[in-house]
C-alpha cells in the first residue's frame, strides 16, 4: 500500500505488516552507486547499449520489448560485480544458439564507456561547472547527518572497486561521514560477497543483525539485510532525473521482491522516514 501521510512530502512505501523497531540501529550500511552517488547514473542503459548489438532478436520481438527485458535483467543483479551481468547476458545469447563476446570483453567495452561518462562528470565538479551535490542522490546528505546525530556508525559497502569508491566518495565530499569504513570489491571480483562483508562488519563491531539498517538500490543488499534481521530501506532512485521524486518502477518491483521494509525514490523525507521506521 502506498503511504502518503502528513509527515511525508513524497512517496514512501512500507512493507505490508511492517512494525517499527523499538530501538535505533547501531550501524547504517549504504550501497554507493544509485544509493549515495549519482556519478554513474544511467549505467543500466549504458550497459544495455553494449549488449544490444550482440543480441539475436526474434521476428516477433520489438526493440523496446528487448530493451525492457535486458534492463530488468541487468537490475536484477544490481549490487553484484559487473562481470556477473556480463556472464548472464552471454548465457542468454548462447541460449538462442548465438555467440557473444566473452564476458571479460563485454565488461571492457562497458567499463570504457562508463569511465568516459564518470570522467566527464568528475571534471564538471573539479572545474566547478557543477556542484558535488548535483551528483549525490537527492537528500542523502541530510540522511547521513540525521543518522550521525543519533550516534549511528556509517559504512559504505559497494560492488564497485574499492579504490574507485573511495576516490568518488572524496570527490563528492561524502568520505568524512565514513572515515575508513568504506568497502568495495577487490580486482578479483569473483571473491566478493556483500554478505561476507556484512558478517565481518557485525563481528568486528560485536553487534547482531537487528542492530543494522541498510540502504540500497539493488536486491542483493536488501535481501542480505533482511536475512540478517536488519532494517532494509530500498532506494528506487531515478536514473535519469536526480530529485524527481519518482521511483524507478523496475527497481521498485525487484526491491520489494527482495524483502524491503521501505521503498523510497530518494531521501527527501529522511527525518519522517526514520521516525516511521524506529519508535524508541
Describe this structure in words.
α10 (249-257) links the parallel β7 (231-235) and β8 (262-264). Helices cover 44% and strands 12% of the residues. The chain has 11 helices and 8 strands. It is globular and about 60 Å long. The chain has helices at residues 43-51, 63-76, 82-95, 103-126, 140-149, 162-171, 175-178, 194-205, 219-227, 249-257, 270-277, and strands at 2-3, 12-14, 27-30, 153-161, 182-185, 212-216, 231-235, 262-264. α3 (82-95) crosses α4. It starts with a strand and ends with a helix. It has an 8-stranded mixed β-sheet with strand order 1-2-8-7-6-3-4-5. It has 280 residues and is an alpha/beta fold.
Short note summarizing the structure:
The chain has 280 residues and is an alpha/beta fold. It contains 11 helices and 8 strands. Strands 1-2-8-7-6-3-4-5 form an 8-stranded mixed sheet.
Which terms summarize this structure?
single chain, 280 residues, alpha/beta, eight-stranded mixed sheet, 11 helices, 8 strands, globular
What is the strand and helix layout of this fold?
Layout: E1 2-3, E2 12-14, E3 27-30, H1 43-51, H2 63-76, H3 82-95, H4 103-126, H5 140-149, E4 153-161, H6 162-171, H7 175-178, E5 182-185, H8 194-205, E6 212-216, H9 219-227, E7 231-235, H10 249-257, E8 262-264, H11 270-277
Parallel strand pairs: 3-4, 3-6, 4-5, 6-7, 7-8
Antiparallel strand pairs: 1-2, 2-8
Amino acid at each position: 500500500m502506498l503511504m502518503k501521510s502528513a509527515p511525508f512530502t513524497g512517496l514512501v512505501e512500507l512493507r505490508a505488516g511492517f512494525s517499527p523497531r523499538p530501538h535505533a540501529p547501531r550501524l547504517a550500511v549504504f550501497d554507493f552507486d544509485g544509493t549515495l552517488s549519482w556519478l554513474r547514473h544511467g549505467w543500466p542503459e549504458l550497459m544495455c547499449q553494449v549488449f544490444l548489438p550482440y543480441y539475436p532478436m526474434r521476428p516477433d520481438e520489438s526493440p523496446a520489448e528487448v530493451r525492457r527485458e535486458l534492463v530488468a535483467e541487468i537490475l536484477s543483479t544490481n549490487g553484484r560485480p559487473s562481470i556477473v551481468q556480463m556472464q548472464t547476458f552471454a548465457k542468454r545469447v548462447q541460449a538462442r544458439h548465438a555467440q557473444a563476446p566473452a564476458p571479460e570483453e563485454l565488461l571492457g567495452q562497458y567499463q570504457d564507456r562508463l569511465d568516459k561518462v564518470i570522467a566527464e562528470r568528475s571534471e564538471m565538479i573539479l572545474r566547478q561547472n557543477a556542484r558535488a551535490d548535483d551528483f549525490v542522490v537527492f537528500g542523502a546528505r541530510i540522511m547521513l547527518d540525521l543518522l550521525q546525530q543519533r550516534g549511528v556508525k556509517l559504512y559504505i559497502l559497494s560492488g564497485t572497486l574499492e579504490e574507485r569508491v573511495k576516490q568518488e566518495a572524496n570527490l563528492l565530499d561524502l568520505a568524512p561521514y565514513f572515515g575508513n569504513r568504506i568497502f568495495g570489491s577487490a580486482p578479483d571480483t569473483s571473491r566478493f560477497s556483500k554478505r561476507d562483508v556484512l558478517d565481518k562488519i557485525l563481528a568486528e563491531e560485536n553487534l547482531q543483525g537487528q542492530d543494522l539498517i541498510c540502504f540500497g538500490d539493488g536486491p542483493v543488499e536488501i535481501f542480505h539485510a533482511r536475512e540478517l534481521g536488519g532494517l532494509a530501506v530500498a532506494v528506487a532512485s531515478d536514473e535519469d532525473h536526480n530529485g524527481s521524486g519518482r521511483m524507478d518502477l523496475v527497481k521498485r518491483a525487484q526491491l520489494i521482491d527482495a524483502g524491503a521494509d521501505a521503498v523510497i525514490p530518494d531521501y527527501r523525507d529522511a527525518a519522517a522516514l526514520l521516525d516511521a521506521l524506529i519508535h524508541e
